[in-house]
Amino acid sequence: MADISFRKWIRWEPHSPTPPTSTIVLTSPQRRFVDIRVLLPLPTPPDSELPLEQLEWAIAGTSTSSPVLNPKTKEVEYSHCVWSHWIDSLVNNRDAGADEGDNYPVEGHPELTLERGRMVNPASGRVEGYEEMWVAGEVRAVEGVGCIVLEYDADLKGEEGWVRGEGGEQAEVERVGRGMVVRLGGYVQGFLRDGGDVRVERWVWDGERGKWEKRVRTGSGGLKGGEGVIPVAFVTEVGGQMEVGDEVMGVGGRRWRVVEKSLV
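The chain above was modelled as a monomer; its predicted structure follows.
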């Protein structure tokens, strides 16, 4: 089941809840997700380039959810969730790890979910206990497209992926070249990592004006600035005409593949 989640607040133990970021998670029906967390305030005008320091965290990958029953009532008490990080703005390697949490319903508020667990606190760099309150957004098709997901996965060896050791021998240097774009309902989020450089974008559908509006864009190194580094225009303008398995060549010769598409 696809979902759009807006974070209302986060509480790192033992502190009080705070809303320090604009955080949105887009999760496709096949459970691919892009999670972008940007420190407030957002830019004015909204399509301005953000300084990289405002990107608290970006993650893309896949998630799983397993119901946990109350031993007495045998009813679902909460769901245990695992988010596997395929790309992580804080980790530059192909095994970016995972975080886990338990999602509890909030009585009387079906749109809310309370998440509890332990993960890396970006401010401290340590694994700490946390609570997050999430608000579910409406998932509806825009211009006939409910969801489309693109992925970029490169083997970045070769000249840039090898170095010479002291004895002249070659040694492999790991460089992550991966990206994911999720368009879900009226939102698009993209995250690209190319070695030590990262790029994130968030776009929102403006129904009154009938167009997509850029709300977040930031990047580093060779991925900073410019249009088309992440193929947002493709997924918003012609993505609806593509099918799973189709490819588009992006800026820098990156080949993005459609891996998922649905009306949901």
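The longest helix spans residues 232-238.
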